[in-house]
Design goal:
The protein has one helix and 13 strands, in the order E-E-E-E-E-E-E-E-E-E-E-E-E-H. By secondary structure, it is mainly β. The longest helix is centred in the last third of the chain and has 6 residues.
Length: 261
């Protein structure tokens, strides 16, 4: 089954918040008999979004949804076993125009493209981001690629093949956290020779002549955390080691816990 919508507009006040040239969807209604929402393909083509911040720092998109009563709580209901399957989602050539009070917020985000697949069930969730890229203007920044495979089950959370590529820097790595009583976790990330000039728009005073390569390895077991950070540039190397027996408690409530390290 196929559905196609063209020239979608949503108006809030005097603003047309989103304008979407086309939305295409292919889906399998027969899968509902097996408690599965199966959307074979979902495409959003040429979306144009206007984000406008008012003087009280609220955004125009917040006016699209009216808040419900503050004290009203939904009655608990049994959640049926249900699966959502989305093999292909594509967002093509998106653009976001921003009118904001903060100069660090980009005035425009363009060339916004993404491709992903997703699966959701009560016992397992999986998101594979194959491609995500964008370009911002004022300040100028380019993300040429973001990709990863994120999996969550009752036993573990896994982040595999993570790679973030900007115009001048790259970060890649893997991480995993077990959900059992042992609470074991591992993480390993590597940053290619760092080009700090790329981030000068929000760190103007940061000037580093060196271009170090950074490796980070961390391990967690119950309440204990260990981490090793290595910075390498030519024949020079700096090696940091860190350990703590209460890092999680400190991060959850720093006002009540003093970090032991």
């Amino acid at each position: 089954t196929h559905l196609s919508l063209k020239n979608i507009q949503l108006i809030s006040g005097n603003d047309t918040v989103p304008i979407i040239s086309q939305v295409n969807a292919r889906y399998n209604l027969w899968a509902l008999r097996h408690k599965t929402l199966e959307i074979d393909t979902l495409e959003i083509i040429d979306p144009r979004i206007l984000l406008k911040q008012t003087n009280d720092t609220t955004w125009n998109v917040q006016q699209l949804v009216k808040p419900g009563p503050e004290n009203e709580k939904p009655e608990p209901t049994a959640t049926p076993e249900f699966c959502v399957l989305l093999p292909v989602f594509r967002l093509v050539n998106g653009e976001i125009s921003v009118q904001a009070n903060d100069s660090l917020i980009p005035r425009k985000i363009e060339n916004l493209n993404t491709t992903l697949s997703a699966f959701w069930s009560e016992n397992e969730q999986r998101l594979q981001l194959s491609h995500f890229s964008l370009k911002t203007l004022r300040p100028d920044f380019t993300m040429s690629q973001l990709e990863f495979l994120l999996t969550r089950t009752n036993r573990f959370i896994s982040l595999k093949d993570f790679r973030l590529q900007t115009a001048k820097n790259q970060l890649q790595g893997n991480a995993e956290l077990e959900n059992d009583s042992a609470q074991k976790g591992l993480a390993a990330f590597e940053v290619s020779p760092v080009e700090t000039k790329e981030f000068s728009f929000f760190l103007p005073d940061l000037i580093i002549a060196a271009r170090p390569k950074i490796k980070i390895n961390a391990r967690m077991e119950q309440d204990s955390t260990w981490a090793v950070v290595e910075l390498t540039d030519n024949n020079q190397q700096i090696h940091f080691q860190f350990s703590s027996d209460n890092l999680e408690d400190y991060l959850l409530d720093p006002s009540e816990n003093e970090l032991n390290y």
